[in-house]
UniProtKB/TrEMBL annotation:
Record keyword Transmembrane present: no
Active site: 231 (nucleophile)
Residues bound to S-adenosyl-L-methionine: 109-115, 133, 178
Protein name: RsmF rRNA methyltransferase first C-terminal domain-containing protein
InterPro entries xref list: Methyltr_RsmF_N (IPR031341), MeTrfase_RsmB-F_NOP2_cat (IPR049560), MeTrfase_RsmB-F_NOP2_dom (IPR001678), Nol1_Nop2_Fmu_2 (IPR027391), RCMT (IPR023267), RsmB/NOL1/NOP2-like_CS (IPR018314), RsmF_methylt_CI (IPR031340), SAM-dependent_MTases_sf (IPR029063)
Keyword presence, Methyltransferase: yes
Pfam families associated with the record: Methyltr_RsmB-F, Methyltr_RsmF_N, Methyltranf_PUA, RsmF_methylt_CI
Organism: Vallitalea guaymasensis
Keywords carried by this UniProt record: Cytoplasm, Methyltransferase, RNA-binding, S-adenosyl-L-methionine, Transferase
Alphabetized CDD domains for the sequence: AdoMet_MTases, RsmF_methylt_CTD1
Domain of life: Bacteria
GO biological process, one term: RNA methylation
Family label: Belongs to the class I-like SAM-binding methyltransferase superfamily. RsmB/NOP family.
């Protein structure tokens, strides 16, 4: 492994007697992780049906290692949103955060969506998840992963933290900042990152992190929690960033994170101050756990007597504007949607989260669940809507057997000749929804979204 001399010197200073163990970890193969989507399936149940070689990740309740030859990204269960492929250590922040139903949650640097999809699963369709990434191109992949996961209570944005802070003053119960960083913890996983490392890049990212945290703090309610994480080892981007933030924000304090076998703790000597108990933070090293490098800190915002007020978004759609959806609902659905949360925007129907701010002026990729298009005399349901449903919620089902090639043919966008009720059908495999199709003249016209098709 051709590591830069300055990086080697730094790591020897950080790890001391453990340095050789760290270097030896580069000779081991990187590990592949799979996190079960508990919005769609229980972890234990997934373990029974999964056709992969799986080993449990001991500190992640719904996480598994898988053998790379299994290729889970090619399996129909991936297209049903039953799991997300994620590096094991990267699962840690969302696992440790303690998200509760009805929380209002912000994932500030969210793309491609690994942490957002788990935060959304923990909300169980309640509260609101705001997922943001400043990169518009990366935010598109974030949106796809949120929709594939079946998350119905999300808002997806591509904005700066500064601008968001003007719209969400003291709005969120929980905020996750998986901050941009120099990526030292990912060197084994992605060797190409090594050539981009420099001491200057560490300082560059440290400045970005120090710029993000204050705006996030403005959006957190008193009594709320903010989690900061990176995939790097540099104290300048971890302990020093946290201690600098605490120096400047007396209304925050560190909260403790749990211990698991192989976890290391942050150290005060790597901080810019000795005032804070940085042993409450967590470090993951690739020579100590079966995963890559990570750092996690949990911050608590102290209670306050004053609370800022945000301007609430008001629904203004009348039922006549979505009357074709009401007809669709009566004909095809076994569930009724809250009329007060239905909103028509540019002939598209959305199911909005409750109690959200006015969002005009923000770069929005999605506001709520995109349910489908309002046509002149009909409703055309969307792929995102299909992913949000369960088999029991739709009347007409075409259930494709996982063992036969009709599943892949459907995912490739082909027309199928299968039995089914006339009109709209929710296409499933083993009772897990994949998308929609429309039955006419003994043929199942494929409505699977072209941009998601099996390759």
């Amino acid at each position: 492994m051709n590591l830069p001399d300055k990086y080697i010197a730094k790591m020897k200073g950080l790890l001391k007697d453990e340095y050789e163990e760290y270097i030896e970890s580069f000779n081991e193969e990187r590990l592949h992780g799979l996190r079960v989507n508990n919005l769609k399936i229980d972890t234990e149940e997934f373990g029974k049906i999964a056709p992969f070689h799986l080993d449990k990740i001991h500190w992640i309740s719904n996480g598994y290692y898988y053998a790379k030859e299994d290729l889970p990204s090619k399996h129909p269960y991936y297209y049903a949103g039953l799991y997300y492929l994620q590096e094991p250590s990267a699962m840690t922040p969302a696992e440790l955060f303690g998200i509760e139903p009805y929380d209002k949650v912000l994932d500030l640097c969210a793309a491609p969506g690994g942490k957002s999809t788990e935060l959304g699963a923990k909300l169980k369709g309640t509260g609101v998840l705001v997922s943001n990434d400043i990169s518009a191109s990366r935010a598109k992949s974030l949106l796809k992963n949120i929709e594939l996961a079946g998350i119905s209570n999300s808002i997806v944005l591509s904005e700066t933290p500064e601008k968001l802070s003007n719209y969400f003053p003291e709005y969120f119960d929980k905020i996750l900042i998986d901050a941009p960083c120099s990526g030292e913890g990912m060197f084994r996983k992605d060797n190409s990152m090594i050539k981009n490392w420099s001491e200057e890049s560490v300082e560059y990212y440290s400045d970005i992190q120090n710029g993000i945290l204050p705006f996030a703090a403005e959006m957190l309610k008193p009594g709320g929690y903010m989690m900061y994480s990176t995939c790097t080892f540099s104290p300048s981007e971890n302990e020093k960033t946290i201690s600098k933030f605490l120096d400047e924000h007396e209304d925050f304090e560190l909260a403790n994170l749990p211990d698991f076998d192989g976890f290391d703790r942050g150290k005060t000597e790597w901080s810019s101050s000795d005032k804070y108990d940085l042993s409450k933070t967590v470090r993951l090293w690739p020579h100590k756990i079966k995963g890559e490098g990570h750092f996690v800190a949990l911050l608590y915002k102290k209670e306050s007597e004053t609370t800022k007020i945000f301007k609430k978004y008001k629904m203004d759609t009348r039922e006549k504007e979505y009357s074709v959806f009401v007809d669709f609902e009566k004909e095809y659905l076994n569930v009724k949607f809250d009329r007060s949360r239905l909103q028509v925007i540019n002939e598209k129907l959305y199911y909005m989260p409750k109690e959200i701010p006015v969002l005009k002026g923000l770069r929005l990729l999605r506001t709520g669940l995109y349910m489908g298009d309002i046509k002149k005399n009909r409703f055309e349901p969307s792929q995102a809507f299909a992913c949000s449903l369960t088999r029991e919620q739709f009347k007409n089902i075409v259930n494709l057997d996982i063992m036969y090639d009709n599943v892949i043919r459907y995912l490739k966008g082909e027309t199928l000749q299968v039995e089914g009720a006339k009109g709209w059908n929710l296409v499933c495999t083993q009772n897990y929804p994949l998308g929609f199709a429309k039955k006419a003249n003994n043929l199942l016209k494929n409505k699977y979204y072209p941009g998601w098709r099996y390759m």
